[in-house]
Batch of 2 targets.
Target 1
Amino acid sequence: MGTGPAQTPSSTRAGPEPSPAPPGPGDTGDSDLTQEGSGPASIRGGGEKVIRAGMGDSPGRGAPQRRHRAQPGRAGKYEPRPEGPTSMGSLAQREDLQDDEDKNSAFTWEVQANNRAYNAQFKEKVFLCWRRKKYKTNVIRTAKYNFFSFLPLNLYEQLHRVSNLYFLLIIILQSIPDISTLPWFSLGAPMVCLLFIRATRDLVDDIGRHKSDRAINNRPCQILMGKSFKRKKWQNLCVGDVVCLHKDNIVPADMLLLASTEPSSLCYVETVDIDGETNLKFRQALMVTHKELTSVKKMASFQGTVTCEAPNSRMHHFVGCLEWNDKKYSLDIGNLLLRGCRIRNTDTCYGMVIYAGFDTKIMKNCGKIHLKRTKLDLLMNKLVVVVFISVVLICLVLAFSFGFSVREFKDQHYYLSGLHGSSVAAESFFIFWGFLILLSVTIPMSMFILSEFIYLGNSVFINWDVQMYYQPQDVPAKARSTSLNDHLGQVEYIFSDKTGTLTQNILTFNKCCINGRVYGPDSEARTRPKENPYLWNKFADGKLLFCNAALLHLVRSNRDTAVREFWRLLAICHTVMVRESRRECPDQLLYQAASPDEGALVTAARNFGYVFLSRTQDTITIVELGEERVYQVLAIMDFNSMRKRMSVLVRKPEGTICLYTKGADTVIFERLHSRGATEFATEAALAAFAQETLRTLCLAYREVAEDIYDDWQQRHQEASLLLQNRAQALQQLLGATAIEDRLQDGVPETIKCLKKSNIKIWVLTGDKQETAVNVGFACELLSENMLILEEKEISRILETYWESNNNFLTKKSLSQVKLALVINGDFLDKLLVSLRKEPRALVQNVNVDEAWQEPGQSRRDFLYARRLSLLCRRFGLPLAAPTAEDPAEDSGARRRSEVLQERAFVDLASNCQAVICCRVTPKQKALIVALVKKYHQVVTLAIGDGANDVNMIKTADVGVGLAGQEGMQAVQNSDFVLGQFCFLQRLLLVHGRWSYVRICKFLRYFFYKTMASMMVQVWFACYNGFTAQPLYEGWFLALFNLLYSTLPVLYIGLFEQDISAEQSLEQPELYLAGQKDELFNYWVFVQAVAHGMATSLVNFFMTLWISHDTAGPASFSDHQSFAVVVALSGLLSITMEVILIIKYWTVLCVVTILLSLGFYAIMTTITQSFWLFRVSPKTFPFLYADLSVLSSPSILLVVLLSASINTFPVLALRVIFPALKKLLTKEEKVEEGPSEDIFAVEPLPHLYRESRARRSSYAFSHREGYADLITQGTILRRGPGVSSDIASESIEPSDEVASSSSKESHW
């Protein structure tokens, strides 16, 4: 069989882990492509795949078909093969979707190896005649600014704030001499200061991004230049370059794997930075490049051309073809090394760059940097507009009043008209602008400057909190953004990743049940025993925390057959590999597992004395309590989504044949030959393990008679079914294992506390549904009394939602139910309109074995149908699904219905206690967050620790990055950094709530004191002929917000606490105030303005009426004395107000108040001194004004009277009103919460998910291991005596034979 173009198969497999690759060097033939008509080297029956060890496979056989041959032409299309069960939708929907996908699947990307000139000739149109290079460089720039764009772009962003535009307008007006009442620099200097502070903050943040980009772009790599590999930087990479990578290197771009030093050019990668999974995945080069590109010289002459799909965000899919030497070879995701992966267990590999820089899949999923604004910031923009409009109206009224008074004055004093040459209208026009400048202080610049310091201070407090310091990894909490602190106190939705965020991504052997007896960790072993109990075993790794003295005694005594077979099964029945480089040091074994669960089981067996030592293509070597035993492997039947179990058929050294099986309890128990006390005890143990949210597996074995095996072997050669109706039962149930997917410390308690704070938590993960649900129960996000809705039920509810006048979700029946949603990415892709704008995945999850059913499936289908019927009856849904839409229906109407359905889904999910989205891509995570923000206008928080969470973190209002195992991408793109998920509780309920309370009090008090001090200018205008003359001394206006009233309000913004941190955590219900915007809103703003105006009225008119018709030394009816009395009354009034509202009294608080009053005394003494008056009488006109006023006791009484009138009524209201409110609350009947039972009237037990369904989440979610690679020899170097000449072919069973079997094999 010569190397040639592959035949076109009927399907392609795509996914995070590629199908097993073609055979190794020892196999015959030289084509790496699957041939049409050549099936796997296995026996198929009832939907299961059996791979017989020891039998080499012909080229293209031995693995499910996963590659196509390219169609003629450069832009061929591939026909994708579905991979998993569909979640919703009809066949017509799938056909429509396929049409859309075909449009997106055209191959428009062409890259030639080692030919930069050829690749550089491709251009793309940008605008009109402007064209640029089609292929991007490998330079990454995530920073917002550069040297030239910083100043204009930052100014543009800052002028998006309405307040800055307002201040800029006032500064321009102040610079006009004819209308200016204050010098331009009085507002210009603070404006420059404010812009400088914000620009500095943005610059510091962006410098951090530049440093990160520079570090990434300058990473070293080896690029083929000429005829040798030269050390270059990542930024020097271009598409088409051939790159050499070594063990532990990070892949710099999306590359086609050409060859590696491993057998069959396998390459193992760790994708923890992409999807958070720590288990190794393998990628494999085409066999033609594996065999041909064996030297640097041959790689330098390699001129292959790759034609593939354009860059996209589909992380787990790739379709293309390699054209080389006039032949085409199909490519899929299994041939691609993605940027961000890390090379593991592979000494050297070579790749050709396909996508570089921002064209790589991981960068396509990163999203853009969003300008994040808090709700209070957006509200302030609106309030600035409201205040500005109000000031303009007041100025218009005052200007018109001035016009009327001037006209009347001129009529009475005609002889003065010669001094005023301008008209009344012109004077009124100038007076309008004069008043506008005078009253511009109603929006104080100092408030915005102080708020920047307050935000900065609260961020520093987060950084200094030692209770959020994670000592094991030396990670303190860090606020990377200083402008979002108050948003932490208003969060309503948390979107969390699972792996590495809720869990530690560490799986440990926790418990086991052997022969009906449960063995858990001893009490002292729950921490760590003083002495290692496994010292007797030289192979023990010393890391196993599980220890049970009784079980250890049984193992070492070697008398109990069940115990011996239990551990033997764990050491044999797996697809774990041992690192070759460690074979010379057998006591330092390093296992390489397809999943962390399997690695935990094999490691547990190793510590208990049953050590998996090595394997060849047809043998496995075990050390059992010090004795080395070699088992001949006759067949390996790996996990898959339908079998839910794994079996290994081995011949023992004694010659007997034994079948070892591990899998889901629902599968194993159905195959037991009988039920006894052991089986019932094991089932009870499984139920107990499930309550503890442990991941379980059942273990069983059977001794196979020689005649049965001979008969099976003959049937295998005849392509019949495996043990057809002969071995219908497993002989003995050995027991069960319980693996703990360890949560991070304090996760359940944190989630429970956050739920009490009315915060909804959604888990968005790329993991499988069963695993995610199991973790949901473990962290108490889900509970047994929740009704978990799945896709068919959700679809039925959504179809009914809009037919019930949009009020279905508010029905009383729904409010009595604790709901939870569990959905996957495919369901979202078909349901949500926003996701349909994204390119569709070319592979739909439809399993080819879907038609086959497990034993007992019919009963489960019946129970599900009954459950759906009860659900429809309880909620009033129609039992029959709504009829399909008319194809001729208007597309616009269909589009509107889709938008309504999208809104219905968000409403339904928002009414749920928990939502878990599984198998979602990074872009889908971001779109889900955007949907909630779009329809509910709530504050969202996203938390994650990997590169796959970056887009979600950027999209949410607040992004939190965990410094974990998955690199620093999430941290570098986050607003806040934490070491553990449990610190989120303190970040939100303590720091977030405090920040919100502080900034709200700060804003309310600042508006109050501004109105209280500045509205007197309006009242004074009524008595000075509306001439825009200032009442206060100029220095009082300048220093009022700078020294006289700044320190107390700054103390409020930085240190105010209504309750302590411990009380905040004990009373999470108090967090609702921030979610409901109770502490600062339009009504609070109106109250502050009204309170300030009332204070100004009292201060002005009380002083005016008392000073009326007074004379003599005690009189203060002159302008300067009057201004001093009003100013002093206002200062004391606002000081008393700050004393009333502060709840956290410290020595610092007293000092700030005393300093404010002291500054007033000191500065007025200086500015009203005689020597300054002599220097500049116009600048310092108030000579000894305060001294003369304060020397009169009667005037002091006026000041005290004004302050008392302003204080006592407010104090009375604040004491009486809460008391009345508390009294009314006690009299009201306390409404009862939702019942713990889902349905109080008519209990429907079948609406609950059985706990058994999640007992075997590991078996249901387990991916296929390395069985194909092991049995084909692809992953192994051939052992002695194994020749490629004895490779045999298997014949695919005919349809007639397949249909004749009524039962599935128990293997």
Note: The two ends are 34 Å apart (CA to CA).
Target 2
Amino acid sequence: MAWPACPASEACLSRMRRRRLPMAKARAPKMSASTACTDGTMCAHSTVDPILRRAPAAKRILSSGWTRSLAIGSVAGRTFLIGSSGSHGSRLQSLWMQAGWILMAFVGGGLFCLLLRCFVRTRARYMRGNSHLEVSCYTVERERLLEYALGVLTIGCFLVFADETCELGENRRYLHWKHGRALEEVTCAVMLLCFCLRLFFHPGLDHSCPRLMRFLTSPLMWVDLAAMLPTLLEMLLQKYDIFPNLIWLRFPRLLDVILRAGDGEGIGVIKRLVAANSSLLMISVNLLCTMWLACSTVHYLTEHDNDSFFWGVEPGYQRYVSIPSAMYYALIDFNGEFPNADEFSAPWGRANSMVICLLGTYVLSIPVGVLGAAFRDHVSRNFKSEGDQGVLMEPPPSRAWAALLVSVVVLSTGNFVLLTTVYQKPVQEEDRAGHSFEEGSWQRSLLAPCRFLDVLLALPFLLRWAGRLVWTQNVRRYIFSIVHVADVLAWLPAYFLLLSLLQHGSCLEHTGSPRQTSLARTQLALHGLCMMRWPRLDGVFGGIFHDLKITLVANKIIFRMTLICATTLWLLAAVLMYYAERNNPDEGTRSHFRTLPLSMWMTALDFTSEAPVNDHSAQGKAVHALIMLLGVGVFTVPMGLFASAFRQRLDERHAQTLGRSAPGPEEEQRHCGRRVSETAFALAQEQYRSMSVAFSMLEQERACGVWRDVYDVEDKNLMRLRPGTWRYKCYRLLMGKTHPGNGRNARWLQNAIIFNTALCCFTSCVETLSYFDDCSKSGEFDTGLGFVWLAEQCSSLSRGLSGLALLCSLGFLAELGARFWCHPQPWALLLHPTTLADLLALGSLPVTLAFLAGAPVGYGWMNLARTLRIWRLLALERFVPAFRDVLGVLVSRGYQLLQVFYVLLSFWFMMATYNWYFLHSEFEVESEDKTFACWYSNYWYAMQFTLIHMSGDYPMTEYPVKVRVVHMCSLFLAWAFVTMPAAMLAAAFHDALEKRRLVAARQRRQAMTKIVRMLRRIILRRRFRQVADQALWAHRGQLTKVGLARLKYPGLARLLRLLHSNEQYHFVLGTATVLHVGLAGLRTIPELRPQAVVWDVAMLPLASFFMLNFLGRLVTAFMNPSRSCHCSPLRFLCSYQRLLKLVALGLYFAHLVYPEDGKLLRWSCAAQMALILHFGQILGTSCLLSLVWSEIRETFWVMCFVSGTFWVLSSTLWYLAEDGGQGMTDMFSTLYYTCIFLLGEWCSFDFSPAGAGLSMLYSIVGVGLNAMPMAAVQDALTNLTDMGAYHVVMERRKILHSHSGAFDSNASNSQNADWRPRKTELEMQIWSSLDQPMV
């Protein structure tokens, strides 16, 4: 059997994407004679033989016939991947590439979970309970010691196994240990001993249970047997390398051993935590699957005929040719990775990608947050925090000494950055060797002074170290502490640098002399260690590194547990990806996975939600999909927990500096169980005091006969104006809805201002289209917005848009003039940020007037004027008071933010220096058509790439081994440090909104006391009593109407209970939904379309069942008082969920009428994905989501305004900085790319210097601001579920459709009171939100 034609190299495709080359320019890699047959196709044996010669470990896998198919790449069957010669083989291979990964990942994973559940249930029948070993010869301590020894031997065997997959040339490897076989046999013997001891001495089962049942009911025992069975058989047969190496199957047991050493439960703790949070996990998985299928379907509809998505040589594979194939690539996008961002069609394909950016990636992260919170709660309940015991605290320095140290460190950093600019000439793309500056140039003359200056700057740290040794009380403890090591590293490298300079002088690297090169690199390394002085500013910034150490010590148990879980999954996934992709026909993919160390590197990047290589085989897609769905979350849990714990400690210290106490239990109960931060509570108390002063002023004015609205106290400037004057009325009118006392006119004016601003911004964005760059051309122009313009209309459209922008600008001018006239302090208004935004927008008036007058205006001036008008968006902050509150909280958190930025800068400069040192002269390794010496020759770009990598994105992966090792270590912690500033900004924003909520709650409570006093007078009136009685009777009448309807139609009442409360029916509905959606997705595969009758026969009963379910819910809607119906069939039909289901079923039956219509078939199959909404009926997610919305709606739009404003305004800077480069030809394209950048995904990275600075700003601040809205949704969903809201909703649902609730509302209320008393305000809120409406 022959391989089909080899697809194009992934490296070539990646270069094509980065460089924006047309698809036709991508060429397939050349195949050597050893890997190509005479007919131009790849031979399977010719592909496998080189690996057999290189890797003895591979011989174990491939030597036997029954395992050869696994090596070639087939898991479910060799026929699908290899196929046969001709079109039939190509069809089978294409079918397997599209659908095989789903069968292996989800069907195989589901069967595995079902088998595991059978194990657990069978084992539960024979378990006696938790007990300890009672055999004197085999105690718990001896068992643990033996398991630790086995773990060490297992790690050694795995290293030998990984080394056997490598070949460095001339029969050399990294370790090349000759006794690897003996080590494996010893490990197998020890594992067999542990296996027998567990089998015979474990008392966890009943005495009546045979030991065989112990083996049959333990999945880990089966895994242990499979791990050691190949080695045992080889030892018995005395024939080696005949079975596959399954050493990696021992890692699950090793994970269980380490977890049992930490908490005593072992791997069962994961099962228990998942079961405890199953409700929230089911809801989050439902939301994820719904969004995933929706976005995959839209991608399929918009990109199925896009020729840019073909990969491989003719005929190639289309990435979005079917829904199953689109699901895999959409899942990559959901992980925040957009490798094909340039190829998406405009506007719908890019719009769908932006929806994934704004919503999908954060929905995918909800299960991660649930697992992280569960791990943290488990450890906090079962283990005692060790606090800061044994951590040496550095005393704070004086102000003068602190200023000196900060100055010295900043000068040292600047001095080294200056050295990097004069060390060698800038490396160009075509250079293959470095060049020093000429003799006598000013750059070369600065080398020696820079190095001697670094020696002088090390003297303060030398004096500090000597003073510590003299004045420290416990010298021994100081010497053996990390603080002493940091003190020594701050000055000792400079001492050795001085010795080298005095002995050899200032050496140059690129002189042709090996000795000079070696000495120059040594001096450069000693000079680069000046970055180790950054941690010595710890005392200056309040002991922030001391807090880091305390955080690590206090949470070391949870860090150890999560890190071990993440590492185990990483190693298992690396082995699976090595087996799946090392013989991939694509040379680019095969080169990334040809050895196990390379596979470990690429899999580590995949675990950080990075997908630099994504065109895998079917089995590779299955493993990669499981990594993205499960592994990424587990891998990022330690980093998230570390960042959360560290921020919590900083919040505690900040609250201590404010000198305020935390809210008590009565405060939290008053706010519906909401978790109120200490900072927000302290700020709210300050606001209370300022409000009391304002209210006292209000009383004084009323005593003088001046009557003012009570809401005027919220604005200091309005309090300075006398009520009733024209200036007062104008100022209050311009406040819009922000003043609660304003009427309809103020609201209309606010809406008009917002519409004018939005119209101006949209007009300015349209003017940036390249269509308006040259109005002398002819033909048609595709705007990318869904419509086409003629070139003859260019001039008239340009003038019309400019005139519209002029009218909008005049409206801005009139508004600004009115604000200056009515403001009590115009000079203060001039310095306000919103006024500056108005002035920037009005700065475009001269250019616009000149253009309309016919004067020649340059392209640059026109672009500047268009972007300045967009900055008017910032002026809308007057109506959404977000920035002013955040600014106030940031001022209070200024020192805390400075501390966090100091930690980030410390690690950032150290990592950037490390990368620059090893890569500034690396001419042998290339990435993206450039050598690493070209990428890293400039220290500014080294800082950019380092920060991008620290944020988890790797657009370049071909790093040398010495750099990869450090990067793999930084993957576990770097994210936490990069996200800390953004997390602090988000915390400041949350505190501002929480403070506003607390203040508003207190105002409502004060207002309620006044309203109650008024109502006590009104309630005595007979008319009011009649109105109250009428409302009460109307409410009871509706409930009675429902009960009477259920009594009148008992069959429909039983049907209602069946559809909404019967668990067996819900199981059938869920199974049918999965089958129908799966069949509809497979129906879109082109290779399966000829079997149309088979698909229609299989799907017709399911569609009929769904139609009956829909009709049953419609018929019983008049007696269903839940939120989805409100006793109204029309309300039931008007829901978007029901409309989508109705459209899906209608299109399916229309396809049955017109089966030959290919477009109708495509739309019909795509519409069937909407039936996944049936799980909302099963799980009841709509009620919980409505509660989440009611919880966050006050703050969600404010957060969206902040993140959206930052996105749009920063996009204008990107547009000006890149000037049409990197695909940013207009504002719409720039908004598309920056939306992806705000996820931390850099589909483009070869920016200008200004663009590099913006990318660093995005990595530090923008990613956190973009995540704030969905983070609020996730936080509210987690809090409501933790407080039992989901269980209350489900109980309410059962009662509404129960037998007693079907007849009498009073019986329902009594059952509700007996079943679950409404004691908390949270439950009162939930029940009231779910009550029936009054008519």
Note: The longest helix spans residues 974-1018.
